[in-house]
Specification:
The chain is an all-beta fold and 425 residues long. The protein has no helices and 41 strands.
Length: 425
Amino acid sequence: MPKKFSAFPIALLGVFAIIVFMAGTHAASQETLLLSFRTYGSRGSTPAASLLSDAAGNLYGTTEYGGAGACTAFGGAVIGCGTVFELSPKAGGGWTARILYNFKNDGKDGSFPFAGLIRDAAGNLYGTTNQGGTGVCDGGYTTCGTVFELMPKVGGWVERVLHDFIDNGTDGFHPAASLILDNAGNLYGTTWGGGGTLFELTPTAAGNWTETILHAFGTGTDGGAPEDGLIFDASGNLYGTTEFGGAYNGGTVFELTPTPGGSWTEAVLHDFIPYGTDGYYPGGSVVFDAEGSLYGTTYNGGGTYNGGTVFKLTPTGDGAWTETLLHSFGRVTDGANPIAGVIFDASGNLFGTAIDGGPYRWGTVFKLTHSASGVWTETLVHSFGHGTDGAQPYGGLIFGPGGTLYGTTDLGGPNAGGTVFEVTP
């Protein structure tokens, strides 16, 4: 499985406010480390998700491990349960970092937030934890995970758990993806455990939240184990990927359509075929272009090098979708094994991350440029693993001012526990 739920790193946390400038390994790019985490340190460790920005330019993220909460790893070592952090730009340059919340795994709280955050109009943050909460999973070996909300208050932030997942045969468990909000304030997300589910959380007048399972995977051909988040189209349909399942067990891209009766109908738009020229094991979310085509990545496949792909799915007008491979990864100096999805800039170029490959073999930031003839060309914007650079960017990218890219690395940096970075093309 591409993502590493609860695969506790052995030697991996956070000295805040370390600023390191590095020349990019490829033309006309510069990387800046905004924050370096120390392995299992008190200020967080191992950020594995994309960042979130607000209108003031603040960045928000999660660390899977570290922090003040005490959780126990497989070998018995006490490690942190993860954190939510904020980075705020200083007027004269640089960034100020602070912990907004330490997960505690106290029987009520969540632990190990693998996914990123979203924000509502009131400034509240929402996310998921892969474990923690009151539900017991995996034969009592783990807890099942939560959906949580962080609310800004005078003097700090207050957390509340909106939903505890339960391994009861109908609920999902082990959520690993970011959430999305609709215009009515409902939350939508995915769970990976137990074959996987697509769920909705609806706020009630009493202040509680009610969960509805929109689709439970399990037939095999409908997909299985969705690892990343969902997106809406203009009509209110949901789209996403499953890592496994489908007609060839290489994963799927799916659409979920609401029906007049209140239920949802799933349709598989593409079945990935392992070990051929197609990509397989899509782990990231998809994104639309202006014409209604979908773009995403696969962790493996793509032909000769088997290092994953960037793909495009185009609707044909009769309900079918046609796949085009825009790039296949895996050459010696190329990136390899993209897990996160891609993003568009204003010119229609695609940007993303790959967790392996590149000249230093620890992952890359890449760009795909579309020519008038329809050919897509890949450029390495940055290659990780050089000196005290970060390593293995599991999360995707977001844009900052002037086309700056922000992201995280799961490992590496001066303190070995991962980084928050900025790349200026």
